[in-house]
Design brief:
The complex is a heterodimer.
Chain A: H1 2-18, H2 24-42, H3 47-71, H4 79-109, H5 118-141, H6 146-161, H7 163-172, H8 175-187, H9 197-201, H10 208-238
Helix pairs in contact in A: 1-4, 2-3, 2-4, 3-4, 3-5, 4-5, 5-6, 5-10, 7-8
Chain B: H1 2-32, H2 47-53, H3 58-78, H4 87-97, H5 102-112, H6 123-136, H7 141-153, H8 158-169, H9 176-188, H10 192-205, H11 209-242, H12 249-254, E1 271-272, E2 278-279
Antiparallel strand pairs in B: 1-2
Classes of the chains: A mainly alpha, B mainly alpha.
């Protein structure tokens, strides 16, 4: 069983490579090189910050696009197994980009500091975001068209980025609106908690507790969405 | 095969032609729109809206706005323009997007506070920026120093400057000079030694070459002001002794009032004028001097700041 899962996941990864998904690494490399060289000339004292901010933002946005647009094409019987293939593609892609971020960091700083290690935590949280987005994309693609699935997944990413505001809004309302807003705030994925890019760019540490909670949250949320996708797909097959 | 080659040739020629035409058209459009330069526009002026629109990528957006502020100030400063209408909003957006972007506070104070042409002439906005920075980074002593510096140099409010330095001195790892400056401010607020201490601290603590060069220029100017004051006093004493002003520093030395020929900080000798005044040889190379310039001297619109090296 486990070798079957591995084979399907590996083939999904090979499909992604064959589809030239990893070509985005070329664009990323150009972006990082350009930023590292250019920013020192047009701005003041933010070379390192730009490399981390731009690098992790690009990893996140490129990955989101891959997760959504590859995810909507993965509707098949092995939906839950192919999930691992897509997740693997995203992790490989992110690791390659991380190498680029660190190379650019070394170029602008000429040395590494121990606090640069927090960039890896930022990257890890981005990968957790990918897990959630991929699982949501698969959930939506199990009951709607590819285009609508992409729209739903992207919308949920945007709403999830506002989840803290949604909670703030819930705390200001009363009665049924309060319940509805609170339910919505807890139902949508909380992407803002998984975004520590600005913090790690300033070399601020991330607490171990947050890493543990975010990991557990992302895994449970992704499993929940995947389970929903499997349930819907199984019901559709029975008809 | 031949037909496909013909198609490729036509497509290639069309590509080159249309690319050239679009570039030329853009240049025409630029000339038509020259009255409304793009840099004078803040498409979204609310930092809160921008922060929400950034979808959590506010750090990168802050970097972009900081670069925009630097480019805006640099462009205006270079062209000698004295209005910097967008500078304060750009800096406020930058720091609200990323309240921990310390560089924006340090340079922001330097851009905003000094009177034109050196800066935007908005010391109150510079202080508001530092206060915002202090609220978000209460342990960073540089912010208190920047605030005190603006109070001291631009507003001559020595009590508030002393208060800012005293608050900064209580921060962990604060520069020891902050406590000294806070203590001496009340007593020696307006004197040259105080100003020298302020600019020396800036010179020693900044990492930026342009800020260091500016501090060095101010230190040179303070030295010239002090030299000219002393030399004119000596010349007046010579006048009292002989009934005329000295024609050269040699005469002052022969009278036992001076040891050798005094030099300005750029190692040029001073000029003794027939009316007893003392002038520097190259006033343009010594911006910010209050003394030692010819009576009809007009400083260049943009001060000439020499590099520190």
């Amino acid at each position: 069983m486990s070798s079957r899962v591995f084979n399907i996941a590996f083939n999904t990864f090979r499909e992604a490579v064959r589809d030239r998904v990893l070509y985005n690494l070329v664009a990323f490399a150009l972006l990082m090189t350009g930023a590292a060289i250019l920013v020192g000339q047009i701005s003041i004292d933010i070379e390192r910050l730009v490399v981390v901010n731009l690098g992790l933002t690009a990893v996140s946005l490129f990955g989101m696009v891959i997760a959504i647009f590859i995810g909507i094409g993965l509707v098949s019987k092995e939906i839950e197994k192919r999930f691992f293939g897509l997740a693997g593609t995203l992790i490989v892609n992110s690791v390659c980009m991380a190498v680029g971020v660190f190379a650019a960091l070394f170029y602008v700083s000429r040395h590494f500091q121990s606090a640069d290690g927090w960039v890896l935590v930022g990257l890890y949280f981005i990968i957790l975001q990918f897990l959630i987005v991929t699982s949501l994309t698969l959930l939506f693609s199990s009951f709607s068209s590819p285009l609508l699935s992409a729209v739903f997944a992207f919308s949920l990413f945007v709403i999830g980025s506002f989840s803290e505001d949604l909670r703030g809004f819930a705390s200001m309302t009363r009665g049924i609106s309060k319940w509805l807003a609170t339910a919505a705030a807890y139902l949508v994925p909380n992407f803002s908690a998984l975004n520590v890019i600005s913090s790690v760019a300033h070399q601020n540490p991330v607490s171990g507790q947050l890493i543990v909670y975010n990991t557990a949250y992302a895994l449970f949320y992704a499993t929940m969405a995947l389970s929903g996708a499997v349930l819907i797909f199984e019901r559709r097959n029975l008809k | 095969m031949r037909a496909s080659r013909l198609v490729s040739l036509v497509a290639g020629a069309l590509l080159a032609l249309t690319l050239t035409i679009s570039v030329l058209l853009l240049r025409c459009i630029d000339t038509v729109r020259s009255g409304a330069p793009l840099e004078e526009v803040l498409y979204v002026s609310s930092p809160k809206v921008l922060k929400r629109m950034s979808l959590g990528y506010d750090g990168l957006l802050a970097d972009i706005y900081w670069t925009r502020a630097v480019q805006y100030f640099g462009g205006k400063h270079h062209s000698g323009v004295k209005r910097y209408d967008l500078l304060a909003p750009l800096l406020e957006i930058t720091t609200q997007l990323d309240p921990h972007l310390l560089v924006a506070y340090e340079y922001g104070a330097n851009f905003l506070a000094p009177a034109p042409p050196l800066g935007a002439g908005m010391p109150e906005r510079a202080i508001a920026l530092q206060e915002f920075g202090i609220r978000n980074n209460p342990d960073d002593w540089h912010l208190y120093y920047n605030e005190g510096f603006v109070y001291y140099t631009e507003l001559n409010d020595y009590a508030k400057a002393a208060d800012a330095f005293a608050r900064g001195a209580r921060r962990p790892h604060a520069h020891p000079f902050l406590a000294v400056m806070a203590g001496r401010m009340a007593e020696h607020a307006g004197d040259l030694q105080m100003a020298r201490m302020m600019w020396s601290t800036t010179y020693d603590t900044t990492r930026d070459k342009s800020v260091k060069a500016n501090a060095a220029a101010h230190l040179r100017a303070l030295q010239v002001d002090e030299d000219v004051t002393v030399l004119e006093q000596i010349n007046n004493r010579y006048h009292q002794m002989t009934g005329r002003f000295a024609g050269s520093f040699g005469e002052l030395a022969s009278a036992g009032l001076l040891r050798g020929t005094p030099l300005d900080p750029l190692v040029h000798d001073y000029k003794l004028m027939p009316d007893g005044r003392v002038e520097v040889r190259h006033p343009d190379d010594l911006p910010f001097i209050q003394k030692g310039t010819p009576p009809d001297y007009t400083p260049p619109p943009v001060p000439k700041i020499l590099p520190t090296d």
